Amino acid sequence: MARIIAIANQKGGVGKTTTAINLSACLAERNRKVLAVDVDPQGNTTSGLGINKNKLEKTIYEMMIGQCTLGDCLIKSDIIENLDILPSNVNLAGAEIELIGIDEREYILKQHIDEIRDNYDFIIIDCPPSLSTLTVNAMTTADTVLVPIQCEFYALEGLAQLMHTISLVKKRLNTKLRIEGVVFTMFDARTNLSLQVVENVKENLKQNIYKTIIPRNVRLAEAPSHGLPINLYDSKSAGAEGYRQLAYEVIENDEAEYFNRTELEEIKYRKR
Ligand SMILES: Nc1ncnc2c1ncn2[C@@H]1O[C@H](COP(=O)(O)OP(=O)(O)OP(=O)(O)O)[C@@H](O)[C@H]1O
Ligand SMILES: [Mg+2]
User: Is the distance from CB of 210 to CB of 182 less than 8 angstroms?
Assistant: First the structure.
């Protein structure tokens, strides 16, 4: 059964989409079956994975308002083996309003994803830069939230609000939700500021922090305009190395938890 990870931070431009695209592609490269879910009306994960978002007739929007099934809008990547995409485009911006008043509207995405969860090892959800109904839908669907933090002066701003939202969702909508961890993005080894941000966040935020730090790398910024993830665009770049390492850590965490779970089950079984 897939581990479902929502990539969220209401702050704009911190590297959510870059992480969603490249973590998905690097997990797929390691032979994991991956579904990338784009719940951002900007549709940047969709286009960054090589899909022409403006030509799509069926997207996650039509699925969420009940005009098509998940199967109707699911796209199998033809450039990345093991990767499927649930695409979005600007139409999704309308969902926010259209879902008002609909029963269980926080669980619409979950209801669809639950049906295909067993087909994947990882489901990665890219969230928009807001704490909107769409982000809440991602958090009710997910097992964990991965928070990218940009190495810049205002890094901590808004984090308290994000943590508060996650704990509210956990309390009211999805009791099993956990924080996957924090990953630093756009780290610039040439500046003291990047280092200070990392130290400062580590001191102030009592969360799991990934050992992998994603460097600032121009190849990561170029890749989306070619519709390619970094491991295909420039396999030897520092950006590709970074996201490969992150994928490795995510797999390690997942496996460690899995073995803990099975060990626990075994102990319970022996006690019977
Ligand atoms: N490690 C990096 N090195 C260089 N450029 C990067 C890196 N990560 C992201 N970028 C660039 O920074 C910009 C913002 O990144 P991205 O779109 O991933 O952020 P986001 O959090 O998804 O933004 P939004 O909040 O608008 O959805 C993009 O132009 C992207 O190409
Ligand atoms: Mg984005």
Answer: yes
Mean pLDDT of successive 10-residue stretches along the chain, which has 272 residues: 96 97 98 98 98 97 96 97 98 91 93 97 97 96 96 86 94 95 93 89 86 97 98 98 98 87 67 60
Burial class (CB in 10 A: 0-12, 13-18, 19+), 132: middle
Distance 112 CA to ligand 2 centre (A): 22
Q: Tell me, using a 6 A CB cutoff, whether residue 221 lines ligand 1.
A: yes
Instruction: Out of 16, 18, 228, give the residue to mutate to test ligand 1, the one with the largest number of ligand atoms within 8 Å of its CB.
Output: 18
Q: Report d(CA 226, CA 150) in Å as an integer.
A: 23
Give the position, in ligand 1's atom list, of the atom nearest the Cα of 129.
Answer: 25
- pTM to 2 decimal places: 0.95
Domains of the chain: 3-271 (3.40.50.300)
Q: Is the CB of 220 under 6 A from ligand 1?
A: yes
| Strands 83-86 and 75-76, sheet pairing | antiparallel
